[in-house]
Amino acid sequence: MLLNQSTIPEVTDDYLSQALFERQKSLRLWSNHLQEIPVEVKSPKDGEYLGPPDLVQVYKYLQDPSDTKTESNYLPKNSPLDFLFDLKKKEQMTTHFYTIGIDNSDPNSIVSYLKQIKDAIENGNESELSDVKEGQLWFGSVKKFKVGWIEYVTYDPFKFVDIHVKMYFSGQTSIYYSDMHCDFVDDLKFGKFDISPESKYYTINEEFWINCYMGSIIRLIAHLNGNQFGSENNSIVECKILNPLANDAINNTAEMFILNFKNIFNHGHLTGSPEDRITTTILNNYAIVSFLKIVELSDSYELAFKVVDGIILGCKKGLLKLKLNYLNIKLMYINGRITDALAAIINDINKINDLSKQDKEYCIDYYSELIEMQIEILLELIRTSKDAQLPSLEELKKLAIHFAEIQPQEIQPWILLSKVLIMDGNIDEALVALNNAPLENLKDPFVLLRTGFKSVVESQNIHLPLPTDVVISEITGLSSEEVYGEKDQIDPILRDLPGNNLKTGYAKCYNLLVEMISKVTWDTLLDIRSKIFIMDEEYGPLTVSMEAEETENKQKRICSRWLDSMFMILYKDLKYFNKWQIELMKLTNGEELGQEPDKAIFKGSCFEYELLGNLSLRLNKKAESKFAYQQALSIRFSNIASKNMVPILFEERNELIKKAYSNTLSSETVSKMVDVIDNQIITHLINISVWRHRWYMEFSIFVISSFKKILNLYGGYDKMDIMYAEMREQYNEQVADMVKEQILHHSV
């Protein structure tokens, strides 16, 4: 899709080139780990060395009518900055926004993007839905801005430098890089500075461009995967997130990322690792995660296997070659070749077991990854298959215990061990295993950060236009003020439930507690906890009169504070959920609700039903969560409700198919019911896409993966054409074109 001025968020600077100046200052923060004396400010955490999103700084002005000079008067031999400086201006400013997902692998593709921005600001809005055909709609008034220059800045997380591409109104470009040692920083305040023609900062080789491109994609995948509440929302409202799979006007971006993975593989540990991994390794980092995700989204498995084989072939260390087979096994796994992956895992585990003690220690990271994959695959197969050849739960338990013994400092071994024990019905040991998980060492999830780590922008300085190119009025026209206002109108107990804000690692452990109370009652789980743990507040010197209790307590373990807190969070969730269910029953039976403390009647706002749906979902109450989300969506559009409805509907679809196989329902009945569900899923995905477009986000791993799932069920391209025609009829051509270009083409 061509860039449209209504899809560009902008922040006005307090002084000219402010964003560039602050970007250069913050480069010292991103490179903090390189300095002998760290900067005395917030230091980036693991993974945040990936750096900030790309910056776009725009200089625009309104020319004074008394000055008759035009751009045609400019002579190329002169400096474009001098020409702009001499112009009389009625108004001038710099604005900025962030962007991520464009092809920034070479200056030509960046300049192409900058030209689109310039044209969008100067030449009005081509959309049929816009009245602005010339100039820019700027805070309610049409301003005929001219763009003097635009500067694009992208961070290389492997060299720790920023690459700058500056395009002037004349089409001339200036390309340079800056690092934390640059001595021309202060000049940025004035919008111009001089770098010596012989300066090293003009020397930019191909490696810089590849690093910037790879870093940008890794940063984007890490942000979407690490989003705290799974919503893939944008942490920077003025950041335009583009779909890297769709921006291939010059290069095939997915292919380019996969081919160039070999260039950054050895430095992947510099990118950090997901928040539930304590240790970053050459096999477990954001670069690896991004590589696998791009392969999966683009279905480029054949190319990926060739690239991995090339990396292995070029490796001169025998043991490292063995480790690198991890990539092949992961590719098999995500490609659905489960049997092949499991066979390869067992084969490589046997190879490692035959090594010397020293070599085994060198391969411990790979060995651990293999054991983890083996346990996860076997758990899934035991749940879904009746194959008598599968190992018993007792054998799987021994494997999980072994994993926890070799990686006690990590969280995942204890979570997997607890899962196996729960499946085996051994809740006592499962709780002990969970208690050993070192959640106090959890990292924060990676999110995109503004330059200088600013968390907010003054509202009067931010321009957030409503898109006019792709519109569904009930979604695009939602008032953000009214939506935020709902938060102040609901039951504060529901709003402030600590379970609403669980981070990924804690959410995994919470889910295991929920699984436990599906096997035993809540009261029984509390009894088990009392039997095996001494609580933190109980711990301390015991008196002589408590000798019997002391003997008993010596056999107990101290309950981790985080696990104790998790019990309290679950208790509050269960209490509120039960209260809601009782009140719903009263409403259903036509009974009046009592007064205090039961005065809240759940007819509430969309936001209230979102929270109730989320509450039900984390308690694994699928029917209740579906009810709540449907109620939310009956009031207004909700991105959260729509997104969470999709996996619920996919589960319902699977259950219907099972009923057809078991002859519980006729195939004709099932076919009709499945069609209804599929249409509901597609509607949710389209609505989510339009909502994300309204907030300048064109890329969603969740949406592409879900569309891919639907299309694969119907044979790919054939269904895509039918879906496109149905979208045009149900919505409009603009919506259908956006979904086809940004999503469907990358889902088959």
Task: Write structural notes for this entry.
- The chain is of the alpha+beta class.
- Among the domains are: 5-211, no CATH class; 276-390, no CATH class; 470-478 and 637-748.
- It contains 28 helices and 12 strands.
- Strands 1, 2, 3, 6, 7, 8, 9 and 10 form an 8-stranded mixed beta sheet that branches.
- The longest helix has 28 residues, at 561-588.
- The model is unreliable at 38-44 and 592-601 (pLDDT under 50).
Helix percent reads 40-55%
Mind summarizing the main beta sheet?
Answer: 8 strands, mixed
- The total strand number stands at 12
Query: How far apart are the termini?
Result: 19 Å
Mean pLDDT, all residues:
86
Query: Helix- and strand-based class?
Result: alpha+beta
Radius of gyration: 29 Å
Q: Helical region count?
A: 28
Question: What is the topological layout?
Answer:
Elements: E1 10-12, H1 18-30, E2 54-63, H2 80-86, E3 89-100, H3 107-122, E4 136-138, E5 141-143, E6 146-156, E7 161-168, E8 173-178, H4 206-226, E9 239-241, H5 253-264, H6 286-298, H7 301-314, H8 318-334, H9 338-353, H10 357-362, H11 364-384, H12 393-406, H13 412-423, H14 427-435, E10 462-463, H15 473-476, H16 480-485, H17 492-495, H18 504-519, H19 522-532, E11 533-534, H20 547-554, E12 557-558, H21 561-588, H22 606-618, H23 622-635, H24 639-661, H25 667-694, H26 701-713, H27 717-730, H28 733-742
Parallel strand pairs: 3-9, 11-12
Antiparallel strand pairs: 1-3, 1-10, 2-3, 2-6, 4-5, 6-7, 7-8
